Amino acid sequence: MTSAPPSEAAYDRLRLRQWARGRAVSAGTHRRDLLKLVAAASVATPWVAAAAAPAAASQPGLPGVVKPLPPEFFTLRGTNAETNFEALRDTGLLTPVDRFFVRNHTATPSVDAARWTLTVWGNGLRGGPVDFSYDALRALPSVTRTAFVECAGNGRSFFTSQQGQQVSGTAWTLGAIGTARWRGVRLAEVLRRAGIGRHAVDVLPRGLDAEVAGDGVNLGRVRRPLPVSKAMDDVLLAYEMNGEPLPPDHGAPVRLIVPSWVGIANIKWVGDIEVSEQPLLSPWNTGLYRLFGPGHPPEGSAPLTRQTLKSAFELAPGASFAVGREHRLTGRSWSGGTPVRSVEISTDGGGRWRPARLRDEPRAGSWVRWAADWVPRATGPTVLLARATDRSGRVQPAATAHNTQGYLFDAVVRHAVTVV
Ligand SMILES: Nc1nc2c(c(=O)[nH]1)N[C@H]1C(S)=C(S)[C@@H](COP(=O)(O)O)O[C@H]1N2
Ligand SMILES: [Mo]
User: Fold this and answer.
1) Distance from the CA of 350 to the center of ligand 2, in angstroms?
2) Residue ID of nearest Cα to ligand 1 atom 23
3) CB 188, CB 232: distance < 8 Å
4) What is this structure's pTM?
5) CA 301, CA 287: separation in Å to the nearest integer?
6) Which pLDDT tens digit goes with each residue over 221-236?
């Protein structure tokens, strides 16, 4: 059993101080590369595969993605596919795999479950490395939970289109999120069986996809340290998504599900997990996935943890509505903090607001569907808005404070439509 882990905030401060003094373990990346990366992170840098071994792709789609990406379901952005929110209108609480967004730093690898093992290793274990085969993992007690996976940069394009600000990274609208029912083994169970020691502070899961390289810096394989406090709490090693074996693009055979946290924490195609007595660093918790810019420390904020509060209409941008008819507006709201309490909508650009009807019991780490009826009275352009409030009383603001990489956009999004 482990002792009580330090509070996350205290731990992050310690890790930052250690990094500043060059004492934290940089897990395969030299400190000067991290500094270069922090500098590079303030400009748009497309990271490309150094040596990708992509799985066979099908059409229509992307070379690095296995599943078809039909244009009615997806908008392609670089190596990634964003879900079109209007494609969720006739789906339930869970996002079908055929519409679930894909965020790949490089390309979906082909991993054979029969030959795959998960290696847990590091000085935070009481003994040596421990391997788990796929069958061994599946034989452990399983748990099932509904959780969204959402990219920290979801909504990033609105920093520019609504706030006139420059940010770097994939220009997502609101579709870099999906909710699924995941089945797997608790990470805590695996770490205990591997002999996690009392002094472990960080675990570092690493993907089996290709190394991420660009601009003369090789960041290595995708990996992001997770504090032991979260790792031992509600994190899953998931092998099923919506009742089916995990599909290749979503991390087959096994991925992490880190409920409510930034998408990058949910490492796909996990191959090994380092358990460490020292705080660990990787580009994904130093130069990336922190808030940089005016109002933030030069080394950035603490590493991002929870996602924020957002709402989206299940509507195409620029959708049109017949005047004088009744229309059912539908959408979804979600929070990485306390669950959504209520949602209001406006059909006149934010002049008047009225409540939407919630169609699901709001739950932590999931989203809630909502609906409202609307009879437009005049033709011409108008703007629809949806604004959620969570149980702590937090309301989506009119604007989000800027950060250079455009993370955690939580402002109310203006959805332009036309009445004809
Ligand atoms: N190994 C690996 N894990 C990864 C990534 C990746 O490129 N490689 N992308 C991360 C990011 S940034 C996000 S938002 C989620 C996306 O999960 P999805 O593709 O299943 O929607 O996976 C995360 N896990
Ligand atoms: Mo992401």
Assistant:
1) 30
2) 264
3) yes
4) 0.90
5) 10
6) 999 999 999 999 999 9
